[in-house]
Specification:
Elements: H1 3-8, H2 11-34, H3 36-41, H4 43-68, E1 72-77, E2 90-94, H5 101-111, E3 119-123, H6 132-138, E4 142-144, H7 148-161, E5 170-173, H8 182-194, H9 209-217, E6 224-232, H10 240-244, E7 250-259, H11 267-291, E8 298-299, H12 306-332, H13 335-357
Parallel strand pairs: 1-7, 2-5, 2-6, 3-4, 3-5
Antiparallel strand pairs: 1-8, 6-7
Helix pairs in contact: 2-4, 2-6, 2-12, 2-13, 4-5, 4-6, 4-12, 7-9
The structure holds ligand LBKI3ST6 and [(2~{R})-2-oxidanyl-3-phosphonooxy-propyl] octadecanoate.
EC number: 2.3.1.51
Subcellular location: Endoplasmic reticulum membrane
GO molecular function: 1-acylglycerol-3-phosphate O-acyltransferase activity
Length: 377
């Protein structure tokens, strides 16, 4: 293990990175709160400011992946579609298989200049996560309870609000609705069988309602669906803890650009279209398993310096007062202040561990885990 690698694996380094992330995140959340009065005066200006503030948070995590861990991201795509990425609004359909698939998504957003503005149909529970979840309120992220009857009108309203969004965005949909586990896969394949649908080997059965409502409400706003299939080389199982430890992964992403006009408007036809899309995605994953690559030509969109610059900025801003504080603390020699400081460090460490836990599949929800009574007619 090299010296740099040894340094990256040190708990103290992680604590410093997490301190910068947490404190800068809370400061940005506060600044976002201060933009509230602006929404009534100039909604578009408030949105543009919030896009930039959100970028300051999410790009720190992207910087950890790109610059700290040095993870490589390769894109497999049609060269004719490539120039359009980042220049139009799009609905992104991505497999939900890895702890950090969302972070790879963010990384591609960063490379195409849409990181601050990108959106997702996210489960309501994530809105309570400090920093990220609070930031999402101001980004007009669409939340769902994963109960269609309750979600229908709220999701529709939130999507309609995006029709006059001032900057290009990608709207991410994990149609599987939850992350892949063998148990959830087994249950969803029982549902597939009962519906007479072909079985999938690498994906859960997609939930079609969210996709249909998104396609319907973003027609005329989004130009295309980006069908995206992600995998990692050498059977890597990447985690956020691995990224913090400086572990380098190799992400491969296959993207097909499908004009939104090709997605049927009728709900049942749209559902059938999505099921067929997932069967194709499954074939791509099979191809990857057999050959170690996706079909078609590759490009490696270059990493941009902005995520690193932003990270260095916040580190300098927040580590200087921390250094001063620690020096004063040690020179004061007061046992009480030292104990209080250790308690604050433990709180930061505990808080961040809890947040990292949100990204771990083995701590995932029970959604899709329960056997459903099947109608085999
Ligand atoms: C490559 C570039 C990447 C770009 C990235 C861009 C942007 C990045 C931005 C942000 C990144 C942040 C990342 C954060 C990630 C957070 C993501 C999440 O929180 S995922 C979870 C929430 N999202 C979803 O669930 C979306 C998909 N779900 C749906 O669309 C659902 O339909 C719904 C709208 C949520 C409603 O949920 P509900 O449970 O009520 O679903 P349904 O009505 O569809 O379910 C009933 C239906 O399904 C059948 N059924 C029953 N059991 C199963 C099963 N196990 N599997 C599949 N289907 C099942 C059941 O028979 C019913 O069928 P029918 O409709 O025919 O009656
Ligand atoms: C600079 C780097 C510092 C890193 C240290 C701090 C890390 C803090 C990380 C907080 C990240 C919070 C964002 C969580 C996004 C999780 C996305 C996700 O994958 O959600 C799962 C849902 O889709 C489905 O849920 P399940 O039904 O599978 O359950």
């Amino acid at each position: 293990m090299g010296l740099l690698q040894l340094l990256k694996s040190q708990f103290l380094c992680h604590l410093i990175i997490c301190y910068v992330f947490l404190v800068s995140g809370l400061i940005i959340n506060l600044l976002q709160l201060c933009t509230l009065p602006l929404w009534t005066v100039s909604k578009q200006l408030a949105r543009r400011i919030n896009i930039r503030l959100a970028y300051c948070i999410t790009s720190q995590m992207v910087a950890a992946l790109e610059w700290w861990s040095g993870t490589e991201c390769t894109l497999y795509t049609d060269p004719k579609s490539y120039p359009l990425y980042g220049k139009e609004n799009a609905i992104v359909v991505l497999n939900h298989t890895f702890d950090i698939d969302f972070l790879c998504g963010w990384t591609f957003c960063e490379r195409f200049g849409v990181l601050g503005s990108s959106k997702v149909l996210a489960k309501k529970e994530l809105s309570y996560v400090p920093v990220i979840g609070w930031m999402w309120y101001f980004l007009e992220i669409v939340f769902c309870k994963r109960k269609w009857e309750e979600d229908r009108s709220m999701v529709t309203k939130s999507l309609q609000k995006l029709q006059d969004y001032p900057e290009n965005f990608w709207f991410l949909l994990y149609c599987e609705g939850t992350r892949f586990t063998p148990k959830k896969h087994k249950i969803s394949m029982q549902v597939a069988e009962s519906k007479g649908l072909a079985k999938l080997k690498y994906h859960l059965l997609p939930r079609t309602k969210g996709f249909w409502v998104t396609a319907q409400n973003l027609r005329g706003t989004a130009a295309a669906v980006y069908d995206s299939t992600l995998n990692f080389r050498n059977d890597e199982a990447p985690t956020l803890r691995g990224i913090l430890n400086g572990k380098k992964y190799h992400a491969d992403l296959y993207v097909r650009r499908i004009p939104l006009e090709l997605v049927p408007e009728d709900e049942a036809e749209c559902a059938a279209w999505l099921h067929k899309l997932y069967q194709e995605k499954d074939d791509f994953q099979e191809h990857y398993t057999q050959t170690g690559r996706f079909p078609g030509p590759t490009v490696s969109p270059p990493r941009r310096p902005w995520s690193l610059i932003n990270w260095l900025f916040w580190s300098c801003l927040l580590l200087y007062p921390l250094g001063l504080l620690l020096t004063q603390l040690i020179s004061s020699g007061s046992l009480l202040t030292i104990v209080a400081s250790l308690a604050v460090c433990s709180a930061v460490s505990f808080g961040v561990r809890w947040m990292i836990g949100q990204t771990e599949i083995h701590r995932g929800s029970s959604y899709g885990n329960k056997e459903v009574p099947l109608n085999n007619n």
